[in-house]
Each structure stands twice: as C-alpha cells, then as structure tokens.
Design brief:
Layout (H helix, E strand, L loop, with lengths): L1 H10 L1 H5 L3 E5 L4 H12 L3 E6 L2 H13 L3 E6 L5 H15 L4 E4 L14 H29 L2 E6 L13 H21 L4 E8 L5 H9 L6 H4 L8 H12 L10 E4 L7
Parallel strand pairs: 1-2, 1-4, 2-3, 4-5, 5-6, 6-7
C-alpha cells in the first residue's frame, strides 16, 4: 500500500504544481492558451506574456472566472526590455517565478534562395533570439532561488525538414534545440531544469493557416503514423509534466509530441 501511495503521489501532477508560478509566452492562443488554462486548473498562478492584449486578457479573464489566478503582461519576445519586464512583473505579482513555458513562435515560409532577409531575420528573431532572451531573464531569477523548470516549444522541424519551403523556420528551431540543451547543461548545478517539446501538426490557427498557405503542409497528417493532427491539450499535458517535479530527473531533453512522426 505504501508503494502504491508513493506512485500515486508521483503521478499526481496537479498536486505537484499547485501554487507554483508559471510564465507562458504566447499564452494568448493555441498551445499557449490551452496550457495556461490547464496550468490554472492545477492551481498554478499564471502570467500570460503575449503581444495581442485583447486575446491575452481574455485568457486571464477566463482563468479568473474559473477561480484561478492570472495576470497579463504585454510582451514582444524580441524586446529585451519587455521580456525582462514580464519576468519582473511575475515576481512582483506572485513573489517568485517557479516555471516558464517559452511558447511564443513565428512561422516562415519560402525556399532558401527565395527567402527575403526580413523573413529569415524574423524567424530567427522570435524563435532563436527571443527564446534566448526569455531564458536569459528566467534563468537569472530561477538561479537566485535555486530551483526552477523551463520548457521550450520547439518543433519536429528542429530535427527533420518535413517539406520544402521551411528552411528559415527549421534553422531557427535547430538553434532552439541547441539553446535548450546548452542551458540544461549550464544550469543543472543551480537546481534549474530546461527541456523542450517538439510538436508535430497540432490543431491551432498557425497550423491551419499553414495548411491553407502551403500545399506541402496539407500532406502533414499523412506523414504521421497516428493518422491525425494533435490537439493543443495533448501538448499541454506533456508541458505540465515536464514543468513538475514528477520529471525531476528529466533535463536537456526535447520530447516529441507528434503521433510517432519522428520515429517513422
């Protein structure tokens, strides 16, 4: 019975996350919104950092209507000042920062020779430099506390170039993998874990728009052994596990959430 009780405690993710403070970039829609709502259901205090104020505040209002605690802060992850401000507001509002889900991302399409500098630089600015800025300020706060957990939203494109026209996006996501693993190595001794997730096709506006815009993306689900597109809630469940200390020995990993795509 004691062994069963210990196992039950281990897998009780909500209990392991209750009262912890999480910052979620891009928490206003899609995977970020779904994860924010799930985090609040677990009793976490949620800080939504996103550019679209109306959407971000709507998520906060929904969490509060359900009895949770949440705060919105207008944040463009390409701005060092705004990222630092978001982390500072989280700490001022709730006293600390325990967890972060760096979910903000930017898509980019075009064959390598046809890419404009603006498209390439835009993808790198959000998906690589923006991710680095978020981790930079989150890590400063977490290392001072001696504990913390970060999850970065990467993509299966960080490992495989799925179809033509995603060179800039894939380059930025490969950089995100390297940043995630480097941070995990460098900050483990300070009690901070850094992991990533690599979603395949997920039913979000970003995915649905890419299907409309790019004929290659329309074949996505055919490449997935599961034969379907994933749901944002399926991603959020893995994020919350990685943020919790049920995953206390998981560090420097990028977990595929892809219906078996990377294994195929």
């Amino acid at each position: 019975m004691k062994a069963r009780a210990r196992l039950r405690d281990l897998v009780d993710i909500p209990a392991r996350l209750a009262d912890r403070v999480v910052l979620i970039t891009g928490g206003n829609a899609g995977i970020g919104r779904s994860t924010a709502l799930a985090a609040a259901e677990c009793g976490m205090k949620v800080v939504i950092a996103a550019r679209r104020a109306e959407q971000g505040q709507a998520v906060v209002d929904e969490i509060r209507e359900r009895g949770g605690e949440a705060t919105y802060v207008s944040t463009d992850v390409t701005s060092a000042e705004q990222v630092e401000r978001a982390v500072d507001i989280a700490v001022r509002a709730y006293g600390r920062l325990d967890c972060a889900f760096n979910n903000a991302g930017a898509s980019a399409t075009g064959r390598v020779a046809d890419l404009t500098e603006d498209v390439f630089d835009g993808a790198m600015a959000v998906n690589a430099r923006g991710l680095w800025l978020c981790m930079k300020h989150e890590l400063h706060t977490m290392t001072e506390a001696g504990t913390g957990s970060i999850v970065n939203n990467i993509s299966v494109h960080g490992y495989r170039t799925v179809f033509p026209g995603v060179g800039a996006y894939a380059a930025s996501k490969n950089a995100a993998v390297a940043l995630t693993r480097s941070a995990a190595l460098e900050y483990a001794e300070f009690g901070v874990r850094v992991n990533g997730i690599a979603p395949g096709p997920i039913a979000t506006d970003m995915y649905l728009n890419s299907v409309t815009a790019d004929e290659g993306a329309a074949n996505w689900s055919r490449l997935v052994p599961a034969g379907r597109v994933g749901e944002p809630s399926e991603v959020g469940a893995v994020v919350l596990f990685l943020l919790s200390d049920a995953a206390s020995y998981v560090n420097g990993q990028v977990v595929g959430i892809d219906g078996g795509f990377l294994a195929s």
